[in-house]
Amino acid sequence: MEVILKETIDTLGREGDIVTVKPGYGRNYLLPQQKAVFATPANIEAVEKNKAEIETRLKADLSAAEALAKKLSGTTITIAMLTSDDQRLFGSVTETDIIKKLAEDTSVELQKKQILLIDPIKTLGETIVSCKLGYETIVDITVLVVPLKETEEA
Q1: Which segments of 73-143 does DSSP mark as H helices, in order?
Q2: What DSSP designation does 85 have?
Q3: DSSP alpha helices (H): ranges in the chain?
Q4: Listing from the earlier edge strand, what are the strands of the sheet with 18-20?
């Protein structure tokens, strides 16, 4: 089944691309969610007319993502967590913790799905975490997990 993407989907392609998908995926997900339309001659002609507009929008999105990547590149955030006597964490550092700390330190607002953290961080020390800022724009930040001091608890 051939469809025309109405928005960028990471696993398929960019807005305006004509892609071939399995019929069930197109019929049950892409079309009802209005993420794509059938690749009919009329729809293809409409996309060709709007090609310049789509390209300028994609270029603007890419330049915004690259500017944000330049701002976040090399960023290190420090998160203090409660630890036991043998330096093991009580709990873990999740995407939500990273998002809150990034917003505090750099005033960059990200969404949870933009933080590419496979498993929550459960150890002290440095961890490299990838952030997906846009289509094919990924930047690595360093998350430093340190023990929370007793003086900070009071």
Answers
A1: 95-106
A2: T
A3: 23-25, 41-49, 51-72, 95-106, 150-153
A4: 18-20, 2-5, 36-38
Q: What is the average per-residue pLDDT within 81-89?
A: 85
Q: Determine how many CB atoms are found less than 10 A away from the CB of residue 16.
A: 19
pLDDT (0 to 100) of residue 41 = 94
Q: What is the DSSP letter of 35?
A: S
Give the list of residues 6+ apart from residue 64 with CB closer than 8 angstroms, or none.
134
SS3 of residue 27 by DSSP: helix
Q: How confident is the model at residue 97 (pLDDT cuts 50, 70, 90)?
A: very high
CB 98 within 8 A of CB 115: yes
Residue-wise DSSP of 71-125? HHTT-EEEEEE-B-TTS-BSS-B-HHHHHHHHHHHH-----GGGEE-SS-B-SSE
Domains, the chain: 2-49 (3.40.5.10), 70-153 (3.10.430.100)
Coil, helix or strand at residue 69:
helix
How many Å apart are CA 13 and CA 31, to the nearest integer?
15
Is pLDDT of 113 > 80? yes
Phi, psi (5° rounding) for residue 101? Answer: -70, -40
The residue type at 58: L
Which amino acid belongs to residue 10? D
